[in-house]
Design brief:
single chain, 9 strands, four-stranded mixed beta sheet
Length: about 250
């Protein structure tokens, strides 16, 4: 057994006993960690009320060598998730982020860039950033980090680069675009413009994205259709919290 320390975000918590909980953490240094927080529900505990859902904290835990749960020994709150007052959409967006992190991340598979992006997304949900753009950026980054980001730069059939004009079909099962010249008798269900494809590439890139990016309503509808379909295909279902988001 070894003692580890890392910044972490609480993405799930379930009661274990009258005084303890099993807490799922997305840590910067170790990826997803499931740990038993003994005595967390007592009035005086070692966790400083730092284990609320989506709280950013510094944790110390004992990593078990067996298949059992790790043991959380300390949690110091750095920042509590405080969505915009009266904005249920921002609150549910935070829950949606937690659901995706839990579903898509693997135990002890660290993604520090995804951790940093999560912190930024939660901060933007607490500010005045557009909710739809904040959520979309996070979705694209998590797809990129798990190696499931669709290809938005070329036609998967003929290999031609996406041009400045025209519309493209999105093939969910392939995670790729197909140009109009390669359509079969029936066009794909999801169609996007070349401008939307370029915007998706930019939003999914490594470089930081400004909190406000001009996006036409039609482009946002096209991007949401593509991302929703991609996530549902990978999970085998629609995320439970997605239905509550005003997207």
């Amino acid at each position: 057994m070894s003692t580890e320390k890392s910044p972490a975000i609480v993405i799930r918590a379930v009661d274990f006993s009258e005084s303890s909980r099993v807490v799922t953490l997305f840590t910067r240094n170790f990826g997803k960690v499931a740990a038993l927080a003994k005595g967390v529900k007592r009035l005086k505990s070692a966790f400083e009320a730092g284990l609320d859902l989506l709280a950013l904290c510094e944790v110390v835990f004992i990593r078990k060598s067996s298949a059992g749960l790790d043991i959380l020994t300390e949690s110091k709150l750095r920042q509590r998730f405080k969505p915009r007052p009266g904005d249920l959409g921002a609150l549910y967006a935070g829950y949606y982020i937690a659901e995706l992190l839990d579903a898509f991340s693997e135990e002890y598979d660290p993604h520090p860039l995804l951790f940093d992006e999560t912190v930024l997304a939660l901060e933007r949900l607490a500010g005045d950033s557009p909710l739809d753009l904040t959520v979309l950026r996070f979705e694209l980054v998590i797809l990129r980090e798990i190696g499931q980001l669709p290809a938005f730069d070329v036609c998967m059939s003929c290999g031609t680069a996406v041009g400045p004009a025209g519309r493209y079909g999105f093939l969910v099962s392939q995670g790729s675009l197909i140009c109009q010249n390669c359509f079969a008798e029936e066009a794909p269900r999801h169609l996007i413009s070349s401008g939307t494809a370029s915007l998706l590439q930019n939003l999914a890139g490594d470089s930081p994205v400004p909190s406000h990016v001009p996006v036409a309503p039609q482009q946002m509808r096209e991007m949401r259709a593509v991302v929703n379909a991609s996530i549902a295909h990978i999970l085998g279902r629609r995320p439970k919290t997605l239905r509550y988001l005003p997207l």
